Amino acid sequence: MIEIRNLQKSYKNHHVLKGLNMHVKRGEVYGFIGKNGAGKSTTMNIICGLLKKESGEAFLDSKDVSKIERIPVGYLPEAPALLDYMNCYQYLDYIAAASLYEGDIKKRTQEVINLVGLSDAAHRKIGGYSRGMKQRVGIAAALYRGHEIIILDEPTSALDPQGRAEVISLIEMMRKMGKTILLSTHILSDVERVADRVGILNNGVLEEEDTIQNLLDRYSDNIISFETTGTAQGLPEKIKELSVCENLAVNGNTFFVWTKGDFQQANQALFSFLNEQQIWVSRYQLQKMTLEQVYIKVVNKPCK
Predict the structure, then answer these.
(1) In the prediction, which pLDDT does 302 show?
(2) Residue 183, C-beta contacts closer than 8 angstroms, at least 6 positions apart
(3) Where are the beta strands (DSSP E) in the chain?
(4) DSSP β-bridge partners for residue 10
(5) What is the full DSSP assignment across 71-104?
(6) 93-134 pLDDT, tens per residue?
């Protein structure tokens, strides 16, 4: 449904995309992840026809994006520019006019309002909506013309848990409608919940593209996680120097240690080391692999 071949894009002297290849299948939710500045938004803007590529090709349903007059994509940008002085009905009628919608506008506006669960608040001004409700307005706008392809850039960013759950439910609803969804977000637990496949963008190329389960299986390693109480000054650097440490990730007071060699020996060595350092450990366990840990390992691999 979306095919990217050897896509390249630079901004002055900064080479953002260095030959990107990716494939989003029809009807799937594709998690598109990478560091800030990795080129995710650049890629999505090229797909939507909002940005010109330098070289390479981008296809939507086998049609070259550069040759399509009106791109058949529903797009929710990271910071949608909603018109706060309008209510939801007025805003979606405006979207209908701006996108040259040819059907029954009144009927379609009500349909998408019902789809995203805003019927009770549709007469209120958007400026008084919560962030989660505003995201639903943006999704309604992306759905308005009924395009098969929906691109969502950080749809759950800065939302509270309830707002995130509501947006995830909408993505699952769109999947059931047969939409092809390109989802970009830094909240990898959301990707893990809803995506069929994942592409990891790093250093301008796609380092990995596979189902989540295949990635978890491929990168599954012996990982020990532990949590310290209080600060542990200089501990990360000391752990990296251990012969049994292959990789390390730290999130606050939680440490993830990818071990190498015999796991039992590595476990004993790490436990003894922490004891010698007189570090108070409140939790110590064998950690189940997550997409976040796969991502950390992929983006920290040496450049090819």
Answers:
(1) 62
(2) 29, 30, 31, 32, 152, 155, 171, 191, 194, 195
(3) 2-11, 14-24, 29-34, 55-60, 63-64, 73-76, 149-153, 180-184, 197-202, 205-211, 223-228, 245-251, 254-259, 281-286
(4) 15
(5) --EEEE-SS----TTSBHHHHHHHHHHHTT--S-
(6) 999 999 999 999 999 999 999 999 999 999 999 999 999 999
52: left (phi over 0), alpha (psi -120 to 50) or beta: beta
Residue given tokens 């390249």 in the structure block: 8
Question: Quick one: pLDDT at residue 173?
Answer: 95
Determine the longest span between alpha carbons in the chain, in angstroms.
73
Say if CB 174 and CB 150 are below 8 A apart. Answer: yes
Show the CA angle centred on residue 11, arms to residues 6 and 14, nearest 5°. 80
The total of other beta-carbon atoms located within 10 Å of residue 177's CB is 14
Residues of the chain with pLDDT under 70: 287, 302-304
pLDDT confidence of residue 171:
96
The type of residue at 97 is A
CA-based R_g, the chain, Å? 23
195: left (phi over 0), alpha (psi -120 to 50) or beta: beta
User: What are the tokens at 141?
Assistant: 């706008």
Q: What is the pLDDT of residue 304?
A: 52
Q: Under DSSP, is residue 294 helix (H, G, I), strand (E, B) or coil?
A: helix
Give yes or no for a contact between 152 and 80, defined as CB atoms under 8 angstroms apart: no
3-state SS, residue 6: strand
**CA dihedral sign, ordered 67, 103, 98, 74:** negative
Buried b (16+ CB within 10 A) or exposed e, 258-288: bbeeeeeebbebbeebbeeeebebeeeeebe
Cα gap 238→241, rounded to integer Å: 5
Q: Are 142 and 182 within 8 A, CB to CB?
A: no
